[in-house]
Amino acid sequence: xxxxxxxxxxxxxxxxxxxxxxxxxxxxxxxxxxxxxxxxxxxxxxxxxxxxxxxxxxxxxxxxxxxxxxxxxxxxxxxxxxxxxxxxxxxxxxxxxxxxxxxxxxxxxxxxxxxxxxxxxxxxxxxxxxxxxxxxxxxxxxxxxxxxxxxxxxxxxxxxxxxxxxxxxxxxxxxxxxxxxxxxxxxxxxxxxxxxxxxxxxxxxxxxxxxxxxxxxxxxxxxxxxxxxxxxxxxxxxxxxxxxxxxxxxxxxxxxxxxxxxxxxxxxxxxxxxxxxxxxxxxxxxxxxxxxxxxxxxxxxxxxxxxxxxxxxxxxxxxxxxxxxxxxxxxxxxxxxxxxxxxxxxxxxxxxxxxxxxxxxxxxxxxxxxxxxxxxxxxxxxxxxxxxxxxxxxxxxxxxxxxxxxxxxxxxxxxxxxxxxxxxxxxxxxxxxxxxxxxxxxxxxxxxxxxxxxxxxxxxxxxxxxxxxxxxxxxxxxxxxxxxxxxxxxxxxxxx
Length: 496
Known about the structure:
By secondary structure, this protein is mainly alpha-helical. The protein has a domain at about 280-325. It is built from 18 helices and two strands. Strands 1-2 form a two-stranded antiparallel ribbon. Helix 2 runs antiparallel to helix 5 (about 125-145), helix 5 (about 125-145) runs antiparallel to helix 6 (about 150-160) and helix 9 packs parallel to helix 11.
């Protein structure tokens, strides 16, 4: 899926879609066979800048991953649930099981045992989220390429993502959000790749998209937004290009049935691995408890089917979420405050060492400025955006679909709930600035800027983002800070 693509967009076409959607200029590009990065890279389809991005992401996410040797924030839940799969003792959690199942599988591979002491953070579990966070940077690069961004613009957007301290922190601990983001962004990227292919080459990424969308929803229900975005794009494409029902119906079947099968299958594995009584019993009915070995209600002949257990657990998850309404948490924040980076989340402290889920202010606040610049530029130079209106519209819809629904939620929410919308904002601003600054050329001139000013803007933004990333790195890695050093990094009163 990852590869270099031409700078010349496909011409507008009024032909009906035959498996790859309408191939207009808003959309996607053909694979590049022109070379320029060496025969080896051509065979691997990995442009050199992508390798550097992966290397940087891996280093920043895996460095000092064993520090601190203490349980950080929500690690207490995900570490415990992963180990309970190894014990087989039933537990209850608000979220669907996939993220925790993957952590349990990783624990098995890493040799983490079920009898690990309760104070042991089992730091080996942190490697899987870190690998997911590394892969996320690469997939985000490809998302931008599928949206007709040049290599420079895709590199710019992926570099900004890799330099965000909040996404970095979330990727370095035994948490599931880096996997959620990877599955969701991967699903959308695979769907976009399917639009420019026909035949078998169309169905493979389409099926991959559906599987990844199901995995996102099976990690957290907020992952359903990825399937929602894909569904909106599919519907718009189908209606706009009058796709034959002989193609549209199988596509709809793939996008609806496969995620559902993935979701249900994850629960089947969940039940299979948790046959014994455990701390989650109290959330379930006596009938459900009769299926758990060691429970006072246990009955070997209990007649509760998988369907009954599946329905009851999902109802219990929903009821528990409703019970959280109007509760409070000291580091929760209003959804409207997230783009402003108003309230970070305090993850851990150890003497003079601190870890905050704190975004890179240059990136977060810079995006607000970037949105204004791109909007004004679009109004003044609409011809520059003519071939990318579809991509910008998709990103706008994706941002809204991943942000505005939080207005209806009254339970405690946190900065990390904005991550999906944050990434779509990075993508939109990167493409918009690329169009205004002349960064969208590709091919042999992929890294030749139209002017010194254009190059200075590109590298200047990344340099300032890197400097700010390094300045806040002590709060991302838990490095020692003096009282003055900590105060210097508290830029807003609400950060305390």
